[in-house]
Amino acid sequence: MKSTMFAPSRYKGVFVYSQSCTAPKHNRSTPTSPPKKNRRRSEEEENACSASLAGIRMEMEQQREWAEAQKIVVSVDLVNAANRQLKFLTAVDRNRSLYDGPALEHAIYRLNPVQYKSDCEKLFGRILDNSSVLSSTQEISSRQTEEIWKTFYPDEPCELDLTRVASKDISHKPSENEKFTEYDLVSAVKRQSTFFYQVSRPHVSDECFLQEAVARYKGFLYMIKRNKERSIRRFCVPTYDIDLMWHSHQLHPVSYCKDMKAALGTVLEHDDMDSDRTKGKKLDTGFSATTKQFEDTFGFRYWKAGAMYRGAAPISVTETPYPFKPVGKGLDASNEHQRLIQLPEKKFVEVFLEVVAVKNLPEQFKGNFFVTFSKKDPDWFFGPKKRLNIASGSGEKQVAYFQCEPTGQLNFELVSQSSPGIAIINPGKEIGSGSLALQDFMFSSCKVSAEKWLELVPVNGLLDSKPILLRIAASFTVPTAATRVFHLVKSRPFLNSSCFFPLPASVKHARSLMHVVDQAGMDVVSIQIRDTFKGSTKAKSAPMKQVIGIMESGEEHILADFVENKWSLSGAGGSFMLQKETGNGNCLFELIGNKMFKLYPGRRLDYEPRHCEKRRSEQDFVTAVEFSVENPYGIAAALFDLRSGTFMVEEETLALPFITLAAILSHILKK
Questions:
Q1: What are the b/e assignments for 505-536, b being 16+ CB within 10 Å?
Q2: Is-contact 633 316, C-beta < 8 A?
Q3: How far is CA 386 from CA 354, 357, 412, 565, in A?
């Protein structure tokens, strides 16, 4: 398969030598030597010219190495294979009993290609391929398969009963004599059970991401080939995009063995025994060595946005799956609530960025150099100005990770700091600045990684014959819909005993109003909880409550009713009933309608606090988890920060129901 290469095209086969690179001409009839100043300048020019030519030769060699790597033949369409594998892993994750226990006693395992090859040849005299085997995730009729199965195994059902597997009620366990392999399949599957979490993000199935992953996988194999040729023993560690392609290749065992023997002379082992990421351990040192070799060999970065370790998989909120099927009405396009709030479309990208090198620094600047970068225009996701050291100057590799909108410009400033110290005390002197438009820097020719020389504009009074250049390397994920962030503020301050959401002193509205603003500080809707009565007269009526949404125009809409000890919510996402959870779990409430949500105390699933986050009491948070047939173990849908009044919503169509829910939680928890 022809893959898209993402190496920067630095040259077009034409060498251009500047005039300053030629040796200085002297008049032979002049017996005197050139002045010392001119001689020193000539030596500096010659040194600079030599360094420039050496750099050109190195980059040409790196391009040649990359071109050689892309000649490695992979006889499988890895992009399609990877997409099929992602669908299969999704199906397995919906049935997590397959990660452990008795079911694995009957399993086969192809992510140890050497062991699989050995077992197949021992049992069948050849490698069993999957070219005639279709996954159930491809939704192809299985009648013929069932008939063949019954012929060979009349007493064994073709379909695995996952309820029996989950309850560990499997009557037959293979004896030692029946085992077809000495390989510990159960331990192997447990080691790989976290792989899906690392690759289960929307951008991973993107065509451009996968095309680059194929090219990088070939580069990875080429490095192993070169190490073998040079008798270098190195534990090469893949990034997750490369590992996805490696897995997909191994799942076609005949092709994998043939391709590996052609490229490497042997079948490449897939060693997944090490999982300790502690600094200095085998996995850590192996990844550092792989990174250096990749960048030295090919001239561009090994790290890649969306392909790095995400951290440990979050703890599941339940061991019991809830494959919820809707009981209420689905999303109605004519629902009046859909028109109540208009939210601007917001997408974000994840960015990895490194300042690789600097060229043509003026002679008068010495000491430490660093680069600051920022977004020119306001950005929902990008925070304050950030700082990076220059890799070639500091000897320390620094890579920035951040999120931002996929528009606008990144501004860079090169700063000289005469002596190290605290930036506030010694901020340094700006040498030059430049900017890159994100639209031009990313996604050109289906590339999501790039390296460019950025020409800086020198500060006033700083002139030199050559422009100052910064080598910027960046990698992006494809744009993804952003999580919606809202703030709920009360219209009047509270006493300490009843404070739920703090109120800025500048807000002065009706006493019982709550106001919802978005991340940019724009008003979304105002909320009021009112007492009302059902009946002809107040004395004969049962007390009720309603949540009222008030638009900027003053128009009012009923968003929820409290009837018979239950809240009934309406919104763009459908109609829901909020009730206390009746099970034995630690769930606080259930929100059931055309979707099902359970509310858990604390930050759960994707909202789990990371090590770098400021410690907060988990009592300050409530997580809404959605359960469905597609996600029977739940996915994070919203997070409510009870102390600050901030809440995050993953799906835009559920913004209004969760705004209503935030107001109800405020009312309930205040009591």
A1: eeeeeeeebbbbbbbeeeebbbbbbeeeeeee
A2: yes
A3: 12, 17, 10, 51
Amino acid at 65: E
Reduced to 3 states, what is the DSSP secondary structure of residue 261?
Answer: helix
- Tokens representing 44 are 């500096």
Cα(68)–Cα(368) distance, integer angstroms: 38
How crowded is residue 269: how many other Cβ atoms within 10 Å of its Cβ?
11
Q: Report whether 634 contacts 605 (CB < 8 A).
A: yes
Please identify which residue in the block is written with the tokens 């102390």.
Answer: 643
Q: Give per-residue pLDDT as tens, 445-465.
A: 677 888 889 999 988 766 666
CA distances from 347 to 28, 340, 405, 479, 517 (A): 68, 22, 6, 6, 18
Tally the C-alpha atoms within 13 A of residue 334's C-alpha that lie toward its C-beta: 0
The DSSP symbol for 3 reads -
Element (H, E) at 135: none
Residue type, 180: F
DSSP state of 422: -
Q: Provide the edge-to-edge strand list for the sheet that holds 429-437.
A: 386-389, 368-375, 409-417, 429-437, 457-458
Residues 6 or more apart whose CB falls under 8 angstroms from that of 398 comprise: 354, 355, 388, 389, 391
Helix (H, G, I), strand (E, B) or coil at 607: helix
Report the distance separating Cα 533 and Cα 543, nearest Å: 5
pTM of the model: 0.81
**Which of 566, 593, 560, 596 has the alpha carbon at shortest distance from 579?**
566
Give the start-end residues of each E strand in 408-541. 409-417, 429-437, 449-455, 457-458, 469-476, 480-481, 484-490, 513-518, 523-534
How far apart are alpha carbons 99 and 131 in whole angstroms? 25
Helix, strand, coil share (%) of the chain residues, nearest 5: 30, 25, 45
Structure tokens at 103: 């079911």
Distance CA 219, CA 213 (A): 10
Q: pLDDT tens, 3-57?
A: 333 333 332 332 222 333 333 344 444 455 556 555 555 665 666 677 678 778 8
Which two tokens mark 125? 């005299």
